[in-house]
Design brief:
- The complex is a heterotrimer of chains A (298), B (275) and C (356).
- Chain A is mainly alpha-helical.
- Chain A has helices at residues 3-44, 61-68, 70-102, 108-120, 123-133, 140-149, 164-189, 193-202, 206-234, 238-243, 255-265, 269-297; strands spanning 47-48, 53-54.
- Chain A has twelve helices and two strands, in the order H-E-E-H-H-H-H-H-H-H-H-H-H-H.
- Chain B is mainly α and 275 residues long.
- Chain B folds into two domains: 1-55; 66-274, Orthogonal Bundle (MetI-like fold), CATH 1.10.3720.
- Chain B has 13 helices and no strands.
- Chain B is globular and about 75 Å long.
- By secondary structure, chain C is α+β, with helices and mostly antiparallel strands.
- Chain C contains eight helices and 21 strands.
- A six-stranded mixed beta sheet of chain C has the order 6-7-8-3-9-10, sandwiched between helices.
- The chains are: A mainly alpha (298), B mainly alpha (275), C alpha+beta (356).
Chain lengths: 298, 275, 356
């Protein structure tokens, strides 16, 4: 046997081995990831509703309908606005918490464990819990406010149009601030100690140290954390589902809730597919934009 | 700064920490309290802050009526899908790291799957499951959670496998191990901390999922989050059942945090640091 | 410019007494090296001077004024760190300018100072690069540049060469010494490497377990160590310690294998019937011919380095290394006749380890 053919055999064997290893993963992701995506695009050009099952090409009718759908844009606005409010609050609170726990302290592990508990429980449970907490009569929130205000209060947290969003915000911030906290804590503890000491000796002020040393050091981590949370907030569904169901009216409808209603309540399948495609398109564009910006910055 | 000032600072930090911890724990305490209150205590006004006794009626009802099966269903689907996703994801990640299978494209394509909001693909998946006749079965839900968690597993394991020195694997090959054996006898043990952290998270994701369970189950394999939402009625809300069922979903997480805090912290921070 | 004074400085970490009542006076312009094994308290002492650690007791004063309790930035010191602690997101120029900006220097002043430092350290060519694009030696220069632009009273250097490879380290040692002469400022240098201590210091402070074992000029410590620890720490290969007895009533000493050496002008004083530890540096040995030989040794291992040759042998269980002329005719498993420069050797008490 010649040497080259045995090397060739070994290479073939290695090639077979490496593709064998990724095959199951690729198969599963193709089936549950790619197939539905293709199906989604196809459906969005057909006309399938509760009453019709028309698989012929229908053009851009559903996409055209998107533009005139006020409920859609309103739900999108809710989603974006909520993200824009919740995310900075979570970052700020998470940062403050991380500062609090950065240096050693007794019982630190226990405190951290307690604080991270909300993050690992189901958003459904979180939403349910806060719905019970916010109950106008039997919940503790109104009681505490009454105690502080010194009189009886009857705030209808999950019904009053002006109170529903703050209530959802509290639940969301409660559940996800610990996530930011943990990530920022890890990032802050990784900031080089000698660099901080060097800055101290160089006489840098608190602000200068933060801007020139701490912020650049935690920025990559913070960026990823913000991206993860922004994508999460954009698909906000579970907490709203349990706390308000999107109500009162469509007051707290997010894009996910609206898409669900369209697909599984109204069975306006083709239209909901168009919505879904719009969302995927927008998110992909957003993520690519964000990644580009970061690459340029680096 | 003198010693006294230092002591005061620590005391102030401890006080803050205590306040914050209380704030974060209180809602879960309230939930737990509801689950063991008597009906009179639940619907007392003003509310009862500390339950008078330890009443397990809520839990007993769940088990008597068979609602507790939902927890079992969650356990089965989350458990099996975690094992599957870890095995499939681990070997795929290894191939991507060591043999650069698919270059960067495959890895990026896989992680991008994770970005798509579940609701967007929910309906096509529902249709697919209808045609495969696996709606409302363990198979269906397990398959879905496996697929859903795979990108995460591959992404995380990719990072952990990259940290293993190549020399170690080469030395094992020289020592006469097959490629397959290297995978299980060298790579897996070397990355076990990361593997375990990833597995914990994969389980948590599946355990906590609501949307897919809502769409893909009806009665047979309903999971506990779906069951919880069922107790919020337009006419009446079953407080004690909500409390008890939610606590059944929360207790394993308390256990996880209590025993595997290190891995959770690792999993969270790694995800962001490596991502 | 003031001198630095430490008076009975104590530092506790919890129950650990890291620095035990160290007193030290450093006159202006001196190059002083704090050296000792890891955990001896040398870095703690340096960081206390910098203000990065609070001391638990005693006083540190600069120019007669106590600086305890002052923030690091108010002490007018500069420091070079072991990891260089360069700011990774700032260019070399901005790294060097950082301390000046913090002190609100004008732009033209900053430019002048950075220009001066970069010329002195020959780093002008990469001022616009970032630390990660530099080699270890270049980073080291930038770190030093950042320290010197500030015109501080006191330069603190914490193991600045330990991350460099051996060749670069030799070069940088010389440059640091040159820099000290050019600046004429007080340098306090911490290292665990005795060669750095010996070569750089005007005065060495040798620490162990938070206590000053001995301080003085390098050669003074080398030639007249106060105890076994100091003697063993300085010099490479280390001093050999051989347990010896008095030779009857004569002026000589008896080695453990029975050989007798009796050419001392001043015979050591043995405690009654007891033993002493004889400290012989490797270079105190030389190959002897004929009658000038003091002892015979069965050479076990020969290590030629080119300039010198090390021969090791065993004296009744004691391992001994001799540093011999490179052209010495010695070979493994053969006997060699050695003479010892006995007047340069030192005797230590077998019990206390103090030099006699």
């Amino acid at each position: 046997m010649s040497q080259s053919s045995s090397i060739g055999r070994a290479l073939d064997e290695q090639r077979a081995f490496k593709y064998l290893l990724v095959a199951p993963a690729v198969f599963v992701i193709l089936l549950i990831g790619l197939y539905p995506f293709v199906k989604l695009i196809l459906t969005s050009f057909q006309n399938i509703t509760m009453f019709e099952d028309d698989h012929s090409f229908n053009g851009f009718v559903h996409y055209a309908r998107l533009f005139g759908d006020e409920r859609l844009w309103e739900s999108l606005l809710h989603t974006v606005a909520f993200t824009a409010v919740a995310l900075p609050i979570e970052i700020l609170l998470g940062y403050l918490l991380a500062l609090l726990f950065l240096d050693p302290m007794p019982l630190k592990r226990l405190f951290v464990a307690v604080i991270l508990l909300p993050t690992v429980i189901s958003p459904i449970v979180a939403g349910s819990t806060w719905r019970l907490m916010f109950d106008h009569r039997f919940g503790p929130v109104n009681q505490i406010i009454a105690f502080l205000a010194g009189g009886e209060v009857k705030l209808l947290w999950t019904v009053d149009p002006f109170l529903v969003w703050p209530a959802i915000l509290v639940a969301e911030v409660w559940q996800w601030t610990p996530f930011m906290f943990l990530i920022l804590l890890a990032a802050l503890s990784n900031v080089d100690r000698e660099q901080l000491e060097a800055a101290q000796i160089d006489g840098a002020s608190w602000l200068m140290t933060f801007r020139k040393i701490v912020l650049p050091a935690i920025a990559p981590v913070l960026f990823v954390a913000v991206l993860i949370r922004a994508l999460d907030l954009f698909r906000l569904f579970d907490v709203i589902w349990t706390m308000t169901g999107g109500g009162p009216g469509t007051r707290t409808e997010t894009i996910s809730v609206y898409a669900y209603q369209m697909a599984f309540r109204e069975f306006d399948i083709s239209y909901s597919s168009a919505i879904a495609f719009l969302v995927i398109f927008a998110l992909t564009a957003l993520v690519i934009f964000a990644l580009r910006r970061v690459e340029i910055a680096r | 700064m003198t010693r006294g000032a230092k002591g005061w600072r620590l005391a102030a930090r401890l006080a803050c920490a205590l306040a914050v911890a209380t704030l974060f724990l209180f809602p879960i305490y309230w939930l737990a309290a509801i689950s063991i209150k008597t009906p009179e205590e639940i619907f007392a006004y003003p509310p009862v802050w500390i339950p008078s006794g330890f009443r397990l009626d809520g839990y007993v009802t769940l088990f008597r009526d068979g609602d507790a099966w939902a927890v079992w269903n969650s356990l089965v689907t989350a458990g099996i899908s975690t094992v599957l996703a870890m095995v499939i994801g681990f070997i795929a990640a290894y191939s991507i790291v060591r043999y650069r299978t698919g270059g960067d494209h495959l890895a990026i394509w896989i992680i991008s799957q994770r970005m798509i909001p579940p609701i967007c693909v929910a309906f096509p998946i529902f249709l697919l499951f209808v045609s495969l006749r696996i709606v409302d079965t363990y198979t269906g839900l397990v398959m879905l959670y496996t697929a859903f968690n795979l990108p995460y597993v591959i992404w995380m394991m990719r990072g952990f496998i990259q940290e293993i020195p190549l020399e170690l694997e080469q030395s094992a090959l020289v020592d006469g191990l097959s490629r397959w054996a290297v995978l299980w006898k060298v790579v897996l043990p070397m990355s076990r901390a990361g593997f375990f952290a990833t597995a914990v998270f994969t389980f948590i994701f599946a355990w906590n999922d609501f949307l897919f369970a809502l769409i893909l189950t009806r009665s047979d394999v309903i999971t506990y989050p779906v069951q919880v939402t069922g107790y919020f009625g337009s006419q009446s809300t079953f407080w004690s059942k909500i409390g008890a069922m939610s606590m059944l979903g929360v207790l394993p997480m308390i256990f996880v945090v209590g025993t595997m805090q290190r891995f959770i912290v690792r999993g969270f921070s790694m995800g962001a640091v490596k991502g | 410019m003031p001198n630095l004074q430490l008076s009975s400085v104590d530092k506790f970490y919890g129950d650990v007494h890291a620095v035990k009542g160290v007193s030290l006076e450093v006159p202006e312009g001196e190059f002083i090296v704090l050296v000792g094994p890891s955990g001896c308290g040398k870095s703690t002492l340096l960081r206390s001077i910098a203000g990065l650690e609070e001391i638990s007791g005693g006083d540190i004063s600069l120019g007669g004024r106590s600086i305890v309790g002052l923030a690091p930035r108010d002490r007018n010191i500069a420091m070079v760190f072991q990891s260089y602690a360069l700011y990774p997101y700032l260019s070399v120029y901005e790294n060097i300018a950082f301390g000046l900006r913090a002190r609100k220097f004008s732009e033209s002043e900053i430019e002048r100072q950075v220009g001066w430092a970069s010329e002195l350290l020959a780093i002008g060519d990469f001022l616009q690069r970032f630390p990660r694009e530099l080699s270890g030696g270049q980073r080291q220069r930038v770190a030093i540049g950042r320290a010197i632009v500030r015109e501080a009273d006191l330069f603190l250097l914490d193991e600045p060469l330990s991350n460099l490879d051996a060749k670069l380290r030799d070069g940088m040692r010389e440059e640091i010494k040159r820099l000290h002469r050019q600046l004429g400022k007080t340098f306090i240098y911490v290292t665990h490497d005795q060669i750095e201590a010996m070569t750089l210091a005007e005065r060495i402070v040798l620490l162990r377990d938070g206590v000053v074992e001995q301080e003085g000029a390098p050669l003074e410590l080398f030639e007249r160590p106060r105890n076994r620890f100091v003697a063993g720490f300085l010099g490479s290969p280390s001093m050999n310690f051989i347990e010896v007895e008095q030779d009857g009533d004569g002026p000589g000493i008896r080695l453990p294998d029975g050989q007798i050496i009796d050419k001392f002008e001043f015979a050591p004083e043995f405690p009654d019937g007891g033993k002493l530890v004889w400290g012989v540096r490797p270079e105190h040995f030389s190959v002897a011919s004929g009658s000038s030989a003091d002892m015979e040794a069965l050479i076990e291992v020969v290590q030629p380095t080119g300039s010198r040759t090390f021969g090791s042998f065993t004296l009744s269980g004691t391992h001994v290394v001799a540093e011999l002329d490179a052209r010495a005719q010695i070979a493994a498993d053969q006997k060699a006749s050695l003479s010892i420069d006995v007047e340069r050797t030192t005797f230590f008490s077998a019990e206390t380890g103090e030099a006699c």
